[in-house]
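S2.1 Query sequence (Alcohol dehydrogenase)
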Amino acid sequence: MTNKYYEFFCPVKVIAGKSALEHMPYELTGLASERPMIVTDKGVRAAGLLDPVIAACKEGGLEIASIYDEVPPDSSTTVVREIARIYRAEKCDSIIAVGGGSAIDTGKAVNILVSEGGDDIAEYSGAGVLKRPLKPFFVVPTTAGTGSEVTSVAVITDEKKNVKLPFTSSFLLPNAAIIDPRMTLTLPPHITAATAMDALTHATEAFTCMAKNPLSDAYATAALKKISHSLLAVMANPKDSAGRLELAQASTMAGIAFSNSMVGLVHSLGHATGAICHLPHGMCMSIYLPYVLEFNLESIREPLGELLLYLEGPEVYSATPASHRAEGSIAAIRKLRDRLFELCELPRTLKETGKVLEGQLDSIAKLALDDGSIMFNPREVSLEDAKTVLQRAWG
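Output structure tokens follow.
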């Protein structure tokens, strides 16, 4: 599992903690930005989360030139084109994406169009297409899970062709990520749980997949420790500002980890399940994680065993024989999922979702084999292997 050669890259400035939002105008004006556009969704606006962002900008002498608040959960090329049109009409000069993965991905795609020109975002799909820096782009995450604020990828749906267009470029990375605990205080329990499990999966796969390296390992283990210490405390006390900040930082750390070391079969199955059954991504991650770890067990026994220290703490780790620590890590993840099921009914099996039919499992398995993440899984996966893991996850 040791790589003799690796690359690690994360140029995103992280501005985190109490009053992080108030530091944003200084950063934007430092990039000659005077008329930012906010890209967000109706839910974020209804929750009042734009208020502190707008207030911070006004206090810092920045004029918000335009606010687009109709980003759908599954953003499309049509939405991106419309936002780019408004950006140009209002003479904006930068973008602030406020929201979860969809708003952030939309902001990234809009930035391509307004920086490169044109109306067809599909022209820029793929890897290595962009050749120069884009307009100033800031991200304010409102969920603690996706890590999109520190990743160089975006996914947008082409509605006419009914396919998901991937975009990959270091130029998609935001100039800064604003991690402010105020932005996640109103997250409902089930979204808090699902997004935290998304981050936990990012960290676990980053630490156990093929492209792991010493730097990504450091971020992955730090993320796991924060989630293990803070998730249940936040579930018990949703207004726990310190715990919310820990989860938000863990999401960012896990994002840095997996964007440098990749993910594996959990994500391949999750992407396929999301496409076919329209299950939320974090829920898919939570469901599949232990089953994939069991499938990969003999290929990842040593690193998975190490994770017991961060999942359960030093006492449990030292009391567990080295040969049983990998199984201990899986048991710890199962125990956490059971507790989350008790607290907010976050499903542990596909059957518990009520949205997946057993007859769909073969289609999910076939689609998962075509997903790019599977290349980095530590164990080769055949169609039969994928079907077997899905059958176990069915319940």
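The radius of gyration is 20 Å. The first strand starts at residue 13 and ends at 16.
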